[in-house]
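Objective 1b: paired records.
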Amino acid sequence: MLNEDLQTSAKAGNHDRRDAQTAGNRMLGRVIFCSGSKARISVTTDSANPSFAQLWSVGRLISIDLGETRVAALTYAMNVDGPLWSEREPNTLLIDVELLGEIYSTPEGIEQFTSGITRYPYLGAIAHRIRSSDLVRIYENSARGSCIIGQLSQDQSVDAIVNIPEMLSKHFAVVGSTGVGKTTAVTLLLNKAIEKDPKLRVLVLDPHNEFAAAFPNTSVVIDTDTLDLPFWLMKLEEFTEVLFRGQEPPADELDVLRDLIPEAKRAFRGTDASTMRRASEKTALTADTPVPYRIADLLALIDERIGRLEGRGEKPVLRTLKLRIMAAINDPRYHFMFSNSTISDTIMETVAHIFRVPGDGKPISVFQLAGIPSEVVNSVASVLCRMAFELALWGQGSIHTLVVCEEAHRYVPANPGLGFFPTRQAIARIAKEGRKYGVSLGIITQRPGELDQTILSQCSTVFAMRLSNDNDQEIIRSAISNSST
């Protein structure tokens, strides 16, 4: 189907848009400067038709004719060679372009585009409006897994094509100000992705509950009413984020939890504590080991310490910690963590439900975070991203998972002192190592300037929409290899 579409799109290039009937297409320029990666073109406009200057406007591709090859260049700046625009006399425009690649003919006579340049423009080389056939050569992609996502703004007869496997293997980002259509773009990309790869499983972290309606037939919606995310899956740092409501935990209370949680896990397993202590490091339990335990056992261990004659100085600390735990388990907003169904070892059921294994025709899991208490969101996001990576690691690449983070600057902010470190660590691990094991990352943000630039730099495909903030624009320019990306 894609090849047929490309053949249809290629018909746009059967006619030369620089025909004699369109006067603006006769407007030629000359190269007056070239630095290797950039060039400047001088163009003289017709005073009777000044609107022809729009053919050279910012963002448009133009062609520089070198005889055997044609260099494709992107306009990124333009100016008038003089202080004012003349309404009566011809105006000379200075067009700054970035050199993207060249179109050449193979020995078989087939025209192809390459991003490399073997012959650079010389001074005086003729520049003109690019042919539609050249646009087709530049943007065509017939590789397996490619799909059409729209049309070029410069020429509506030429399709915009994305290679889904390549996009997912190297991560992607969608950036743009509020209201420019990021959700619509992501919906299109995900629908195309699951269409091309039926084995793909998608987890969407949705802080505004926007994506449920976008995938009515291919997704399951997970919220606090349908979620059972056992508290014992959390590492100590994630668990304390919940107990202390996002505040820095006191060191003495943290030490108590670090000592007693492994004891509670041993009690649940019915194993003698002294035997466990003699076990090898490989089988020893820590506060971070994902092994079930009961909150009742943890509270009993705290009561046992309180009842001891020694250690009177720590009794206020123990009582305060006990009150924190009881407040959390009695809070109805935390029911998805501390309900009776989260006590048993349900990790396989939890993973299967969240990551759609098997998918049962619904490979997308929309995780609605809006109903989760704000102080718990960071911990939940951390657990989910960590589980996504570990699932891919355990599956040895047999399960391809895509984690989509909406409002990603909340989880991985540019300032290392902000945000929740375990969440940042989990997302960074996917960004840096995920492609080895088949887990991909999709970043969505309206403020790329507030996003960790290390994460953004790992996204080889960037869909940049309108950005109103100058700093955000500069961040995107520095994060991609050239202006055309």
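Objective 1b, second protein:
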Amino acid sequence: MKRSTKIILTLIGLFGFSQLSLAQGDVANGEKLSAACAACHAADGNSSLPMFPKIAGLGEKYLLKQLKDIQAGSRTIPEMAGQLDGKSEQELKDLAAFFASKTTQLSGAKELQVQVNSGIKVDALKLGEKVYRAGNQETKVPACSGCHSPRGLGNDPAGYPRLSGQYADYIEKQLKSFRAGDRTNDGEAMVMRAVAEHMSDAEIKAVANYISGLN
């Protein structure tokens, strides 16, 4: 079976879990545990620096998975080294529940141009919207909206995070990491790696910029 077919079947299966229970963390206890997170991500999860992602409102299931992956070492983030040592699974659930309960603040897209492979410079917002909503059939890049919703609000039961309002620099970095194979915690189906491997630098920068202002 071709990998593209496997990915489609995986997505169908994930979207079918509409009744899937979420992490069921304790928001109040998560707030108490979040004090150490505030230095980088701010008290409400809306980081003030693009080098640190906004984690407010990303979705409880997604956040819990990232916390578990970081703790287990399957996702390496130098700034997070040691931060989750000794945390129980319930405490990770509580942290995920707390930050998922917060409201994401929009970063805002910028007017800029990107240079496509032909050497022509194009409007980044128009290209970003096209890739996000329709993908690129010629290079087999699927639409981002299929998993992350037309408004970028994600799909928490399926474990797909909210993207709307995230820093463009951070999204660009993650897409390039998936493309290079440096980030591999997207599951056995390699959903994000399979998407990013076909994206050009211009498409990545454009879609990241577009997403930052999506709402």
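The CA atoms of residues 93 and 189 lie 25 Å apart. The chain has two domains: 3-15+107-212, 27-100.
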